[in-house]
């Protein structure tokens, strides 16, 4: 959501348009529908964006009764795509809604649009005062120093990946099957190719094995930045015993009543302020956390290589031999503490 909204800011500047604060279409992720103001400080955002783009909280009355003209931006990759094919719709209908473009080429934007996007991402978007206080309370409660681990092994993620995992518990298999829908797992040679391309999420047990290959001590304090649906988590906890979660550290009524995306905001806050950040995936949160940590000068960021793990195990490596090979595969990034999202960051608001 944060990424898509920052993209929307850049596009609004490209089109010289007024931005209306969005309503989150969150049901697909969290089965609830909280709004922008439940997560972000609205007045602060509007104030910080002054001079970059105009932002309004609500539509003017003469427009509010209209349905927006919907524009699919999924194929737009540069400023001229928007100016030549989206701007005419805005001028004609005055009010448009856009779908996010997963393959944005933000580096092709002119400087004023880049500046607006960067100001939104790094300067203007901050959590509400209440949510930030809760996040700071959570951060304070975590034993220090600590590593924040974004572990993606939930039923929907595994189902979406179309990967099969032998040896899972009956409960995990049932949860994955319930989440599959039409996405049937790959089989045979297609499954082997898919896995070797790094498309299968790492299990908690595989994550713990890579941690050991990197000589991360088993008594390391680990904050688990994840929802409540993680499967097979004992594969990690049986080896790394100092694992804490937000649900264990925050048990008040206000936490229990939080929406899914406000709980995710807590993970985001903790992750960008952690001593180290490790991700088993390369999703939107991982990219945003890595970029924000780089911006703040916190470079202890690492993405574990699913591809390396799959390729090495497919060769029959195991035990100490596999550990040594995994160390070599991660050595450069681990030593430098860098995430692979960082070279794409063109924002430098401090200079």
From TrEMBL:
InterPro entries named in the record: FucosylTrfase_pln (IPR024709), GDP-Fuc_O-FucTrfase (IPR019378)
Kindly list the GO CC terms recorded for this protein. Answer: cytoplasm; membrane
State the UniProt keywords alphabetically: Carbohydrate metabolism, Fucose metabolism, Glycoprotein, Glycosyltransferase, Membrane, Signal-anchor, Transferase, Transmembrane, Transmembrane helix
Q: Name one GO molecular function term.
A: glycosyltransferase activity
Q: Does the keyword Transmembrane apply?
A: yes
Q: Which family does it belong to?
A: Belongs to the glycosyltransferase GT106 family.
The protein in question is named: O-fucosyltransferase family protein
Q: Which species does the entry assign this protein to?
A: Populus alba x Populus x berolinensis
